[in-house]
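Fill-in record for RNA-binding protein.
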Amino acid sequence: MEKLSIFIPNSYLAETKDSKIRTYKVGLLGRYAALFRANNIVIYNDNSDGGSRDDALYMKTILEYMDTPQYLRKQVFPITPELKNVGILPPLRTPHHPLTDECEVGDFRQGLTTKRVRKGTIVDIGLDRPALCKEKLSVNKVLSFRIERLGKEILVEPDEPDSVYWGYKTITSDRNLYDSITMMKNKPDLVIGTSKYAPNIISILDEVQNSIKQAQHVAILFGGPYSGINSLINERKLDYEINTVPKQGTETVRTEEALVSTLAIFNILNLE
């Protein structure tokens, strides 16, 4: 498995009104996604009375804030009501969130393109002075760069490492779950739904593991407080439907609980 996308309904926050708890719940999604190296978080429209486009955009804002390195957040995100409780968010501590400004030639950092100049594009990569990229890039974009030269002048090139986890992208879709899957540029070649009504994953563990290892892009689908996967997508459109919390001790499994339970199992299954 080279790429992992998780699908979350826009009704995820429908039963939560307190602004701090809403922020915290979205923070769990971001933290779990990063912990298990998800590449995409797709927020789809589950067409329930509780789901809304505003909630989807709220979730996107919080998730993108979390994924942005600390040294760029003030420049990228203006102060808005959605971000008033970000102090309670768990840090990601991923490789693209360095804790110091110490770096070497060849290191990778995310940077904000601030302006174009005759020589190229000025980039803020969180050091004591801006860097120069000799390419003409769009302004006010967060991109990944490789440091080519350190000294009086810092030179960088657009690049992203292949060997380490480099964060997730958040995608919002006004479409239903099936259409949200098919609209992706890099379509998943293995689609897995999660449901308490599905077979215990242990019963098909070897088959699922083999499929994961052969897949290039895996999509894992999660339902919300009002709609389970069975009511959102025809099971014939799934490669597998699995239960990753068998014999649950509670009446319901919350989306974030299903997420961390499922991703923990898939993390083990994907080990070489």
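KEY FINDING: Residues 8 and 43 are 5 Å apart (CA to CA).
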